[in-house]
């Protein structure tokens, strides 16, 4: 804090630029603003400060989930294209029911342990309820990870769905246009390039 106040000293140009303190010069303002910006940048980027350490821990905790999502997208897309990604998202969502059921052990076992402790029961009961509470909380945390992963896959599938629909519409229109031209001129397929014939399904049309 004192360092930030000290770097404001150039705002008093009467000592440096011999002008009135009420009208600071442009160089002094630039120097003061750059000093403050460098100080804040150091606090946000240096690992010696709390802010940078907090960001580092947050980013480090995202490495494994992001890697798992990328692997799931790559494997599912390589097996069945966008349909595989949609099926993978459905598979991740199918585990939510089990996760929510086990998650119910958390508050129930915690309340049961508190009641047993207030009733003066054995400490073994409290240990067992704590174990059930930990199992419920752990399962809830894992279930949230699956929910986030399925959200990423569903977002990818939904964003790609309009593109697939447009491709199907374009292919259907091209096929109908090709058939109409083929009825008018049976030799029209000879003048079309291979990509156009493939898009229109001309390779499946047998022309005598």
UniProtKB/TrEMBL annotation:
The keyword Translocase applies. One of its GO terms (cellular component) is endomembrane system. GO terms for molecular function: diphosphate hydrolysis-driven proton transmembrane transporter activity; inorganic diphosphate phosphatase activity. Its EC number is 7.1.3.1. This is H(+)-exporting diphosphatase. Pfam families: H_PPase. Keywords: Ion transport, Magnesium, Membrane, Translocase, Transmembrane, Transmembrane helix, Transport. It is an enzyme of class 7 (translocase). The chain crosses the membrane at residues 56-77, 84-102. It is a multi-pass membrane protein. It comes from the Eukaryota. Its main location: membrane. It is found in: Endomembrane system.
């Amino acid at each position: 804090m004192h360092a930030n106040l000290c770097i404001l000293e150039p705002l008093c140009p009467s000592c440096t630029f011999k002008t009135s303190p009420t009208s600071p010069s442009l160089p002094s303002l630039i120097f003061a603003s750059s000093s403050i910006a460098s100080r804040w940048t150091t606090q946000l980027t240096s690992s010696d400060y709390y802010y940078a350490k907090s960001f580092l821990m947050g980013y480090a905790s995202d490495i494994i989930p992001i890697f798992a999502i990328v692997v799931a997208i790559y494997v599912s897309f390589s097996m069945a294209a966008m349909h595989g990604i949609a099926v993978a998202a459905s598979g991740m969502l199918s585990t939510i029911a089990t996760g929510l059921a086990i998650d119910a052990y958390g508050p129930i076992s915690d309340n049961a342990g508190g009641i047993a402790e207030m009733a003066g029961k054995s400490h073994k009961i409290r240990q067992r309820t704590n174990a059930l509470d930990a199992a419920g909380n752990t399962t809830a945390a894992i279930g949230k990870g699956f929910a986030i992963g399925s959200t990423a896959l569903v977002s990818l599938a939904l964003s790609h769905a309009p593109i697939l629909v447009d491709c199907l519409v374009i292919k259907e229109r091209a096929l109908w246009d090709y058939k109409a031209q083929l009825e008018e001129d049976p030799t029209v397929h000879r003048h079309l390039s291979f990509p156009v014939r493939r898009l229109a399904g001309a390779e499946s049309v047998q022309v005598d």
